[in-house]
Amino acid sequence: MKDYQNDYPDHTQSPDYEHGDEAPSNRSNNPTFFDVIEARASRRGFLMGGLAAAITGLVGVGVSTRGALAASTSPLLGFNAVPVTEDDMIHVPEGYKTQILARWGDAISGDMPAYHGANTGEEQGHQVGMHHDGQHFFPIEGESPYEGSSTDGLYVLNHEYIEPRFLHAEKYAGQELDSGAVVYHDGKRDDDEVLKEINAHGVAVFRVQKQENGDWEIIADPRNRRITGNTPMEIGGPVRGSHHVVTKYSPDGTMTRGTLNNCAHGVTPWNTYLAAEENWAGYFSNTDQEDQKPNLPREHARYGVSTNPNARYGWHHAMSGADEYLRFDASTKGASAAEDYRNEPNGFGWVVEIDPFNPDSTPVKRTHLGRFAHEGVVFAKAEAGKPIVAYAGDDARFEYIYKFVSRDVYTPGETDGAILDEGTLYVAKFNADGTGEWLALAPGRNGLTRDNGFADLADILVNTRLAADTAGATKMDRPEWGAVDPATGEVYFTLTNNTRRTEAQVDPANPRAGNQFGHIIRWREGRDDPAATSFTWDLFVIAGDVGTSRTLSGDSLDEDNIFACPDGLWFDADSRLWIQTDIGESAQNKGDLAPVGNNAMLAADPRTGEIRRFLTGPMGQEITGVCTTPDQRTMFVGVQHPGATTTPEDFAAGTLASHWPDGGDAVPRSALVVITREDGGVIGA
Predict the structure, then answer these.
(1) Is 557 in a helix, a strand, or coil?
(2) Is the Cα torsion angle 196, 197, 202, 206 positive or negative in sign?
(3) Per-residue pLDDT averaged across 459-477, rounded?
(4) For residues 363 and 255, is the Cβ–Cβ distance under 8 A?
(5) Is the separation of the CB atoms in 104 and 200 below 8 Å?
(6) CA–CA separation, 48 vs 112, rounded Å?
(7) Strand 364-366 relative to strand 232-236: parallel, antiparallel, unpaired?
(8) C-alpha closest to that of 429 among 444, 441, 411
(9) Nearest one of 126, 157, 145 to 636, comparing CA atoms
(10) pLDDT confidence of 33, banded at 50, 70, 90?
(11) Rounded-to-integer distance, Cα 676 and Cα 211, Å
């Protein structure tokens, strides 16, 4: 298995691949998490039984389960599992009902422009964006993100990326286009198409209310707004004002424009929202060369900034040549960084703080949380008089898990986002004995010296991945969402996929090699202190089919809970762990992944390890993003990119894989699913 990092020379063939996912760029010799598992299994003497047995021995050891396996039936899970499905519908357990809310294109602001197939770019800037992801319901009182009204609030919703053929459905009809293709005219892009694409990215803030009939509706409100790929942003933290972020737009390095590819999110104890920038690098093109070879600076190369002249969507080829579009060309054009956009990519890869209750506020990129492909941000429980602690994963193959610990302590009613600008960023190292350590990414520590190429803290943060390489962190398998158990403080992270490419590579000692579909790791901080620099870890569940998976009890998953490629992860107030899946569009319902069907959401009891499938989605989608109202009687779940499995040929023929949620011959649209119990009870109980 030593070569497993190279099992997918073409990363687009990985089962979890989706359009826009960056190619692996970690060339360090740091150990992979599989190396750690293999070594730990060997220490436990399991290898003679095969790796499946070895990994089984790592499930549920090293972290207190606080009564795990005490009951055969979980008291937290009060519903019957839904079966695996392969149709174009939403399925929830008996006794539950659903409603559709906030579809891509639904109006939220301005003149409330209605959705139709030919909305302009300006109209899209007043509508719900495309490809829903991280999200949160903020009670309307605006005092706490978790307490207050359960019938009225501001909803904040990420829009990760776009599917241009559906976004421009009327213009693009009849053409053979895949899910990421755009149309050029003599090498140029139509300006309004580019504006519409940029405005379909970002974040939406809109008021929602429960009506007398029980349905939820979007309500016009002066706080409703769109934050898009063009919205002015402040740069905060140690990188602010540094030479790394000097551009033609901001010669003093204090501002940038837009947020892109916002995946998961974070919710701060001071009632603001954090949007995480994930696969942003491919939006930019840098065609600089030396000796006819790409010549990218390390802050571009280590993140996968494109050397393709068109990059992902070719926005810099807009016919008008407007500055807001030209900035996506990060090639050297001027005599200095203040005369071009060579540093424009350095303004991305951050966590963006948004105040949903102040529509006049400027979003801030909090740079001390690091620069990478942020999946999301999850906070340890905030306690007065103690530092703020936040965790984040870098969602790319063989990247890392990070933790930020603030310098200052939390003071309820006084602390604001500035506390995220001072502190220490750490990266995780997992050891084969079930322990782990947090390695500080700070000047002079863990090899981060001038002699090793790190001039100061801003340099470390702009080059977070390289700093983590140098420090010796453990290369993980696509760290996705994280969640903190409110009862124990234990931290859970999904690792979406680490499968090998072919069955031919399987051997008797490694029977899971061709059929590993991700797992969920968890750890407990030393002394139960979130700010500690040591921890103990184990595996909570190993995903797969009935023959290859393992649960906390050591048993295989069964027809009620088999799943693959765990992604979204969230704890509700009662410590139910909600697990969402993201099988890539190229692999859904095919081969080894066929038994698990469409992407789904499951609920787990972290004490007993019991898991049940709660929801399955329509064709071609990813289930991503979940939250409830404070009373836990209304749940919101995101459905992203339905119909993405439509082939280019079928698109040209008008034969789409999905027409959800509108049905008929409608273009598929990302949307929220509102879930309630028919008896009005707590969701999942």
Answers:
(1) coil
(2) positive
(3) 96
(4) no
(5) yes
(6) 65
(7) parallel
(8) 441
(9) 157
(10) confident
(11) 14
User: Is residue 613 within 8 Å of residue 598, measured between CB atoms?
Assistant: no
Band the pLDDT of 497: cuts 50, 70, 90.
Answer: low
Residue appearing with tokens 């280590």: 302
Rounded CA-CA distance 304/21 in Å is 10
Terminal CA-to-CA distance of the chain, rounded, Å?
42
pLDDT at 585 over 90: no
Asked if pLDDT for residue 43 goes beyond 60, the answer is no
DSSP classification of residue 243: G
DSSP structure string for 260-292: --EEEEEE-TTS-EEEEE-S-GGG-B---EETT
Find where tokens 């102040």 sit.
Answer: 358
What is d(CA 201, CA 328) in angstroms, rounded to the nearest whole number?
Answer: 15
Query: Cβ(570)–Cβ(481) under 8 Å?
Result: yes
pLDDT in tens, 188-217: 999 999 999 999 999 999 999 999 999 999
Query: Over 632-683, what HEC string results?
Result: CCCEEEEEECCCCCCCHHHHHHCCCCCCCCCCCCCCCCCEEEEEEECCCCCC
pLDDT single digits (tens) 113-130: 999 989 999 999 999 999
Please state, in angstroms and rounded to a whole number, the distance separating the CA atoms of residues 620 and 501.
22
Peptide bond into 387 cis (omega under 30): no
pTM above 0.90? yes
**Residue 15 or 258, more confident:** 258
3-state secondary structure of 543: coil
CA dist., res. 87 & res. 69, Å (int): 35
Per residue in 240-294, pLDDT tens? 999 999 999 999 999 999 999 999 999 999 999 999 999 999 999 999 999 999 9
Mean pLDDT of the 600-627 span: 97
Please calculate the CA angle 356-361-367 and round it to the nearest 5 degrees: 90
Determine contact, residues 611/579, Cβ cutoff 8 Å.
Answer: yes
Q: What's the sign of the alpha-carbon dihedral 660, 267, 211, 206?
A: negative
Largest CA distance in the chain: 70
Residues counted in the chain: 685
